[in-house]
Design a protein that fits this description.
single chain; alpha+beta; 16% helix; elongated
């Protein structure tokens, strides 16, 4: 049986390839039927310390065939750091 996953990326033009790849992998692992990835641009490295320079945050909202939903936050504290996932 063929299964289609519909993925919408909001803010795509401000996304980073590696981070978008990680977000799509997350959707794939969860086998959602639909997903929206909300891209927030990385905070510039020269930003004021209170803004968390280098911080990257995406939200991934997944909808399953049953109609249930799950939203997971994906962060990277600085360029090159591991991605963290929080629900």
């Amino acid at each position: 049986m063929d299964k289609t996953i519909r993925i919408e990326i909001q803010g795509y033009d401000e996304g980073e390839d590696e981070a978008l790849d990680k977000a799509v992998q997350l959707v794939w692992r969860h086998r959602a039927s639909r997903a929206t990835i909300f891209v927030h641009p990385r905070i510039p490295s020269d930003a004021e310390p209170y803004r968390n320079p280098g911080w990257l945050e995406y939200l991934v909202r997944m909808t399953y065939e049953s109609g249930s939903e799950l939203t997971i936050g994906m962060i990277q504290r600085r360029p090159g750091a591991e991605y963290e996932f929080h629900s």
